[in-house]
Amino acid sequence: MVAESGGGGGRRILDVGCGINKRPGSIGIDRNPRSRADVIADLDHFPYPFATGSFDEIHATHVIEHLADVVRAVEEFHRLARAGALIRIETPHYTDFSSFCDPTHRWHLNSFSFRYFGEDHGGFGYYSDCRLREISVRVRLLALWRWAGIEWLVNHSRRFRRFWEHYLCFMVRGKVMVFEFEALKN
Length: 186
Description:
Layout: E1 13-16, E2 27-30, E3 39-40, E4 55-61, H1 70-80, E5 81-92, H2 97-101, E6 131-141, H3 143-147, H4 150-156, H5 158-168, E7 174-184
Parallel strand pairs: 1-2, 1-4, 2-3, 4-5
Antiparallel strand pairs: 5-7, 6-7
């Protein structure tokens, strides 16, 4: 296991797939030796070299879409998080050009892609024992739709967001999504 340090104010923060823009005060893990990571590791191989419950926050910014197994990666984030920790995942919406223009993107996700891990798992909660409480899901839309108020509706009404995902998202395209979860532990 790797010795853990870092994190402002005594909080331990893990920046998964940190690249060259590692979050200040965090411990960065990345597979690329040219990154600013503190730990070089293949993010598709589990477990990561940290003790269970080591972190108060885990940030995965534009990395989950590159990993081989989304469910297993979220389970690993959950393992590394202490009870009540913040898990923040940022990824392109599947209707954004950036989701498909990068050949290293393996997954194209929408704003309901992580519901397996919450109360609203649609009957599929048996796929994982990992449990997360959704704090927020924010979707960023193209500028025209922000100015028209559609982004506000998508982000302030779960019912409208579902309508947008089902019927509108190919015309009113999403750009990026930010998920914040609380790690629930038994």
